[in-house]
Structure formats: C-alpha cells, structure tokens
Specification:
Length: 319
Amino acid sequence: MTDTLLDIARLGGTTMGTHWSVSLVAPRQRDLHPLHAGIQGQLDQVVAQMSTWEADSDLSRFNHAPAGSWLPLPAQTRQVLDCAQTIAAASEGAFDPTVGPLVALWGFGAQAGERRAPAADTLASTRARCGWQKLQWRDDALLQPGGLELDLSAIAKGFGVDQAARWLRAQGITAALIDVGGELYGYGRKPDGSAWRVLIESAPEEDAATPGPPCVLALDEHAVATSGDRWHQYQHEGQAVSHSIDPRTGMPVQRAAAAVTVVAADAMQADAWATALTVLGSAAGLALATRLQLAARFLDRGEQGPQETRSPAFEALLR
C-alpha cells in the first residue's frame, strides 16, 4: 500500500528567459523524471512556436516573411492569437499582439534598439506598422502584409502554464501548482486537503519597509498573473521609461501601477489582461475590470505608501 501514500514533489527548470517550478501531488514511489521531461517539453514547444528570441520559431518566420505571403501557423499559436485578438478588441487596443516593433523601438525585447526616446517621425512610421486589426486569416494561414511583427511575450508565458497543467492532468496528476516566471495556475488539493495558496506582493520594491496588508489567494482551478513597471525599465534623461508600451500611442506608460494582478480561469487570459490593465492605468483599468467582471487588483505608489484598489470580482475571491 505504500504506493498510495501521496507527497508533494517539486520540479523546476528554465524557459522563456526565466525559471519554471511545479509543485505536484504524486505517489511517493512515482518516477518523477518523465514528469519533469514532459513539462519541459510542453514549454519548449511554446518557445519553438511563439518565441521572438528564436530565429527559427514559427513567429519569427512570420515576422520575416515577404509581403503578401500567407503563412500557416500551428494550432496552439492560432489559439493564442485568437485570445490575443479578443482581448485587444475588449481593451480597445490597450493589448496588442503586434506591438513588437514599438517595444523594440524603446529598447526592449528580442529586437531591442538603442535605449533612448525615438524621433517623432520614426515613432510615427513604426506605429503605422502595428495594429491588431491588420491580422487577416485564411483558414489556418495568417497574411503577412509587409512589416507586421507579432509579439506574444505578454500572453505566451501564461499559455505555457496552461499547457503544462493540461499535460499534467493527462498524466493522472490530480493536483499541482505551476509557476512560470510568476504566472501561476493551481488545481486540485494538497494531501492534507487544503488548496494551493499564494502570496501576492503588497508593496513596490522601493516601499518594502511600508508594505500594505498581505494578500493571499487560494488557487483551485484558477490562474494569477501580475504585471507592472518594477520588472523592466530604464532611466533616460532623468525619466523612468517603462517596458509597458501603450499600443494606442506608441509611448511607454506613464505612472504605471507598481503591480496589476489578475485572477482568471486560465493563465493565458490572466497574463494578457494584466498587461492590458497596466496599460489602461488604475482608474480606467478598474472601470473596465468591473464592467467585464474581471478579478483585478491594482497596487499604486502613494505619498503615504502603497495604495491598493480591487475590482468586485477580486474582492469576492478573498471572502
């Protein structure tokens, strides 16, 4: 009967320029090597399809294809792009899977240019190349009109989390907590019957001495993703330049929230919506999250320390 005794096993590795970790419930004598290899394989497949850092990925091949060509894309990439287009429309362009050239123009991402403010004419010409409305499908093929570049870095990591979760379920793993670079999904129960619980940050890094109240979420068939300006930014002429680019203006987001956390049914949507709401800002983002019944939490810098606002759907998760 010893093979029925369950433990929490922990696996980990690297992917997408970050680390992944999985805590899973399995019999004590189960061989974990196939599970580790399988998780890594699922994440490697996402990289092979959707990475802008890999020259031979499906996404990179599309980005460099000649104008007028139709390129078939794998089913997983089409699924991610379909979600990206839906969120782009719902956010009125605050999320845009074609924002890559603007991200590079401001010195971020795989194709990063010089880290300085671009000239006005360069910004205008780069903006003209972008726009999620330019995406045209013919069956499973996407049209490259010329100069269009896809960037799924704000959604593919979440999709990777979901893929790992789906694969683990198929292997008979009834409970797991998956974390890929801070995007998480939890399902099932630990051996003691409790849910997976995660701590959401309560203060910007520079305000660590005066944190707000701790925020703990139980993840049972839920995903959580956090976006904000503390992870990637640089100083230019005394001003902080955020990696969060507003696709509607082509400019870095000004006074972005220190962190925007979104809880959703899957990590793909949580990942993308965290980015969209960061671009929108706390006021407009909270209004949209409330209208769409999204579970969102905004952490802003205030004169008296961190200021937290939550959508009604997020509040409901804490009860």
